[in-house]
Every structure is written in structure tokens, then in C-alpha cells.
Design brief:
By secondary structure, this protein is of the alpha+beta class. Helix content is 41%, strand content 13%. The strands form three sheets. The chain has a six-stranded mixed sheet with strand order 7-9-8-12-10-11. The chain has a three-stranded antiparallel sheet with strand order 2-1-6, with no helix packed on it.
């Protein structure tokens, strides 16, 4: 035990003795070394001699002679920004000095801007042939109908009845009532009571007086407003058929048929057919606001649908409720922009109503083909085959507000093309369309 404690004491003493030393070291080397972390004393730095200063000045002069001096900013971004700042000032100065009718420089497009897939939605007026924008369509149609009164008042009044009144059920009821009046005159020309129509009559007020264009129609076919005495009531206003019109019963019958067969005057949608070169951007559509703008009634309906969506989250929906919701979703868009990828990769583009049938797209494509009699198929992006015979609308197929479809030959036609030695992926469009081909950007 005593030996054990001695060993412990010796070990403690050995560890407390400090760092060891080699036996071969001399006494000078055994002296304690200075700590390395102490800062060394710095000697004051001497400046360059006169000879060194003269040599440096000569070298600097030679270097300045070899290198050209800086000429301002050379970065393209800085130059472009400077030009953008100077262009408006130059345009304002030159605009005041140039006369009207000179060529004007178009404003540059902003960086990152993309070209629209279609400039907008346009229509053709069936009466004047003028090209109309979406926002001026109804106004210009009404102006054309009103101007038609000077040439054919009967036809103009019929167009006004069917076009100006939006409630189709009310229009049909009013037109049928007017036809009944004319039938009574035609069947009973000797009866005087059938040639007079009391304006304050309840049926006339509820069915005819509320229709725009009804009064113009009566006056155009020969009725005249007259005050006639009514027993126990005093004079009241009547429509009375003139003798000249009564002498031509065939004219009344013809006007009645025109009224019954009348249709609303609707502007014709312009397809805006365009052909693009093959492009990887075929499925990208940058549509104009015309495809999405909502009228006041549509905005109110959308707000109502949003409030109803909150209620749908807290309740189970039946099949009828789901179908009704799908119908609402299909009526969300009015127009759609469709592209068809042809065998050679070119793209055929057109504008359609969202409620138009698939057959309209087949007709549109067929009109652009060299051989329009050859059968073909159209496939949606999901691989769904769109049959020309099916009575489906574009919104029912999910092809709104835009879609890319693929042109495919019928299998029998494809075999015939290969057997004839022709290439099935060659151009199939009419030559005039290939001359107007564009680049999709």
C-alpha cells in the first residue's frame, strides 16, 4: 500500500514539473523561450529613394502612352438606357416640326411582351358588310336596322321586333298574336270589327305594346292610328286598316309569313384564319381580353356562383346538382381559339363560338385543304377523338377558351398515300394559305 501511494506522488510531481528537456541540449538552449504571441517590434518603414521615385514616374508615363484613355460607359445596358431617355425628347421635338401625314416611328415593345394569339373578336354586319369589334357589334347592328326603314319599312320593322327584344318567348307570343289579327282580316274581309285593333285592349297591351318595332310594323303594312268613339267611354285610340291595304289581301298574307319566319339579325363571327410555321409554342395561347371580358349580367352571375360555392362545401351534392354545376361551367366562355396541328407540323388557327358544334371545326379545316374530300380525324390533346357526326359543342368537349388539336388521316387514306409513294407528312394546305404562312411568336 505504501508503495502504491509513493507511485501516485511521483506521478503528480512528474506532471507538475513542466515541459521536458532533452539531455543533449546546451545551457543556452535550456534558457526559457519567448512567447510567440508577443508582438514583434516593427522597424519604422523608410520611404523610396530619389532614384526609385524617378524610375516609377518614367514607368507610369510609358504605361499611359500605351493604353487609351477611358471613353465613358461601354456596357450595352447603359447605352440602351441612355437611348431610351433621349428618344422621347427627340420625338417631342421632331413631332412639332413634322407635318401631318409623315411616317411615324412605332413605339418599341416593352421587354418581355408577347404577341397575342389573336388581335380580338371581330364580326361582319350582315346588312352592311362592315367589320365590327365586339364592343360595337350591337350598336352598329341597330343603326343598320334603323337606316333600313327608309328603303323597306316592313322588313326593317320585322328585323327590329326579332332583334331588339331579347326575350324570345315574349317575341313569339307577340308575333303569334299579330298573325292572328292578320288571319282574321284575311278570312273575314267583310267584317269591319277585324280591321280595327283597340290599343288599350288588355291582350294588345300585354303581348304587343311591350315589343319594340310592333307599332312600326302595323304602320308599315297599312294600319293608321285613329280616335274612335266607344259607347259609354268616349273616344279611344285604334289601329284601323286602310282601304288601300285591304284591297291587297295577298300583301297582308305575305307580310304575315315574313313576320313568322323572321330571325334576329346577328353579326357573323369572323374566323380570322391564320397559318403558322411549326413551333414548340403551339400549345401556348396569349388571348386578348375579348375572350374573357364579362358583361354586367355575367359579372353578377359569377359573384352569385362564388357565394354558392361556399354553400356547396358544407353540403353533399346530388347528381342533378353536379350536372347543373357543369352546365354553368360550360356557359362561362363565349368564344374559343382553336389550333389544329397538320401532318407537316404547320398550325391552322381559327376563332369559334364556345357553343358551336365540332362539325364547324371539321368544315373549317376542310376549307383549307387542297383535297377537301379526303376523310380525316381530329384528336384533342388528351387523345380523345372528336367525331364530326357527334352533336357536341366545344365547351362540352373542354375545348375552351383555347385548345390545340391534332390532324390525323383516316387509316384507309393513310394506306393509299403510302401505296402511291407520297409522303403522309407533306403539306396538305392550299397554296394561297402557304404563301401567307406566319411565324408563331
Amino acid at each position: 500500500m505504501k508503495k502504491f501511494f509513493q507511485e501516485i506522488k511521483a506521478d503528480i510531481k512528474f506532471k507538475s514539473a513542466g515541459a521536458g528537456q532533452k539531455l543533449t541540449e546546451s545551457a543556452a538552449e535550456k534558457a526559457p523561450k519567448e512567447k510567440t504571441n508577443q508582438p514583434a517590434r516593427q522597424q519604422p518603414r523608410q520611404g523610396p529613394t530619389n532614384e526609385a521615385q524617378m524610375a516609377a514616374a518614367a514607368a507610369l508615363a510609358r504605361l499611359e502612352q500605351k493604353q487609351p484613355r477611358a471613353r465613358g460607359p461601354t456596357s450595352q445596358d447603359l447605352i440602351r438606357n441612355q437611348v431610351r431617355k433621349e428618344l422621347p425628347a427627340e420625338a417631342s421635338v421632331s413631332g412639332s416640326s413634322q407635318a401631318s401625314g409623315t411616317n411615324m416611328v412605332a413605339e418599341p415593345k416593352e421587354e418581355g411582351s408577347t404577341q397575342l394569339a389573336a388581335p380580338g373578336v371581330y364580326f361582319t354586319c350582315p346588312l352592311t358588310g362592315a367589320i365590327l369589334r365586339k364592343d360595337q357589334r350591337d350598336t352598329r347592328i341597330k343603326e343598320a336596322i334603323l337606316s333600313h326603314f327608309s328603303t323597306d319599312p316592313v322588313a326593317a320593322s320585322i328585323m327590329k321586333i326579332h332583334t331588339f327584344n331579347k326575350d324570345r318567348d315574349r317575341v313569339k307570343l307577340g308575333v303569334d298574336t299579330i298573325a292572328k289579327y292578320l288571319d282574321n282580316i284575311h278570312l273575314h274581309p267583310e267584317e269591319e270589327k277585324y280591321r280595327k285593333i283597340k290599343l288599350q285592349n288588355k291582350v294588345f297591351q300585354e303581348r304587343i305594346n311591350c315589343l319594340e318595332g310592333a307599332h312600326e310594323f302595323f304602320e308599315a303594312i297599312g294600319f293608321q292610328k285613329t280616335l274612335l268613339p266607344v259607347p259609354d267611354q268616349g273616344p279611344e285610340e285604334f289601329y284601323v286598316l286602310s282601304e288601300a291595304a285591304l284591297a291587297k289581301p295577298e300583301s297582308l298574307e305575305r307580310h304575315k309569313e315574313q313576320l313568322l319566319c323572321g330571325e334576329p339579325v346577328r353579326a357573323t363571327l369572323i374566323r380570322q384564319r391564320r397559318v403558322f410555321r411549326p413551333s414548340p409554342m403551339a400549345s401556348q395561347f396569349d388571348l386578348p381580353p375579348d375572350f374573357f371580358n364579362l358583361t354586367t349580367e355575367e359579372a353578377k352571375r359569377e359573384q352569385k356562383l362564388r357565394s354558392e360555392a361556399v354553400e356547396r362545401l358544407s353540403m353533399l351534392r346530388t347528381k342533378a346538382m353536379r350536372e347543373k354545376e357543369e352546365q354553368r361551367e360550360m356557359r362561362k366562355y363565349t368564344y374559343t381559339l382553336l389550333r389544329v396541328r397538320l401532318p407537316d407540323g404547320c398550325l391552322l388557327q381559327g376563332t369559334f363560338y364556345a357553343r358551336e358544334r365540332v362539325a364547324a371545326l371539321y368544315s373549317f379545316v376542310r376549307e383549307a385543304l387542297q383535297n377537301d374530300w379526303l376523310p380525316f380525324e381530329l384528336l384533342a390533346s388528351c387523345g380523345q377523338k372528336l367525331s364530326e357526326d357527334e352533336n357536341l359543342a366545344f365547351n362540352e368537349c373542354g375545348l375552351v377558351p383555347s385548345a390545340l388539336l391534332t390532324f390525323s388521316w383516316d387509316m384507309a387514306v393513310l394506306e393509299d398515300i403510302k401505296a402511291a409513294g407520297a409522303k403522309p407528312d407533306s403539306s396538305i394546305l392550299k397554296p394561297e394559305l402557304l404563301l401567307a404562312i406566319e411565324k408563331l411568336s
